[in-house]
Amino acid sequence: MLEELKKMKWYDQLFCALPIGLVVVGGAIGGVFGALAFTLNIKVFSKELSSLKKYIFTLLITLGSVILYLVIIIVLALLFPGIFS
What we know:
The chain is an all-alpha fold. Helices cover 78% and strands 0% of the residues. It has helices spanning 2-7, 10-16, 22-45, 51-79.
């Protein structure tokens, strides 16, 4: 994975790393989803696709990780009402 990351341009690396922002918002749970999405984004950028497709796929992965994070947080809040207070 590091080799693939080193081959990328800085702005592609930055775009792939957007999901890591979930760590700031979501702590450990956000970090897990952010890291998984970051890994998937790097894999997408290592594929032989057009730049537009790479950006679209990685944007969808990032949005999907945010949505999945929110769903998990809502489920946890419903199952354990006092967990976030």
